[in-house]
Design brief:
Order of helices and strands: HHHHEHEEHEEHEEEHEHEHEHHH
Helix content: 40-55%
Shape: elongated
Strand content: 15-25%
CATH topology of the largest domain: Nucleotidyltransferase, domain 5
CATH superfamily of the largest domain: Ribonuclease H-like superfamily/Ribonuclease H
CATH architecture of the largest domain: 2-Layer Sandwich
CATH class of the largest domain: Alpha Beta
Amino acid sequence: MPLASKLKNALRSCALAGVELIVSFKRATEKLLLPAKWRAKRVKPEGSIAYQALLARFPRYLTAPLGGVACGEGWLSLTWDLCTAIEALEHLGMPRVAGLHAEERLGGLFIRAASTSYIVRELVHEAEHRAAATCEECGAAGSLHLGHGFAKTLCGEHAKARKRPKQRRAERPAGLDQTPILIFMDTEFTDFDYPQMISIGLVSETGESFYAEMSNGWSREGCSPFVAQNILPQLTGGEFLQERCFAGRRLADWLAEHPGPVRVVTDAPGYDWVLMLDLLAGIAPENLYPEPVTFYSDCFPELVPLLQEARAKAFANSTAHHALNDAEALREAWDIMTLNLHPAILDQYLRHF
């Protein structure tokens, strides 16, 4: 890690530790010095915190339109701690914070504080990252849980009530511990009952692309009516039309040329990923992750309009149902998702696969 980054992290740690000491002192004096009738309202209660109690304790921060809270009970304690820290800093002379807005969004806790203070910004980031490891429902230790139509940070007990797709964790290739380069992939194939690869397109997050069409291994007679009407007329042909064995070697070489591990992102692992592995049978490069990242866009219903808009823009100057075009559209949709997810939630999303 560069020296500047180490110094910045050390400064941040010292600042947060200092605030923690100040908050501890503030709470101790409140318990000792406040009259009983005030103590019950101002001192943080043990266990769960009621929504109305939080608003009553910090009305200046959390009252609309400058502030508010919209999250589960499990995160109210984190919000209370953050407001307490900000209040303590104000008592020491820091400019007043006009408002604080905390809301659950896309599985994480998003917090916006009306302050330009560095320490307030770091306190906000710390609270957001703590929320990413705290059940939104009860405040116990939790993690991100994904399902069709939802993304929630939950503990094991509350996650049981949610229907979640079965997923296996992929391990990094032996000897490679770098962050992988993401490769967005799509294939076109004959039909769903007996899929045979027709074409494959891949686009890396850094912009490099690969495309090939198979000259063997499939037949027009085996294509569904949809494929015959919408996919076959778009095939490029020419230099991209290759025998499967040659296309497979080209793909293996292309993946191996990337500087470090590569991981495929697909929205159809049961078809696209299986067909790609079949093309690479026996020659898959060592830097290829053994399982893909599945892009479950429907885990985040709030993003559906943005993803639909991104797809429309992606095909403004090209057509759908062409493997390379679809791979590029998948990359653009992924960019939309990562721009809107909190980094702590995105990190856990990737850890699911």
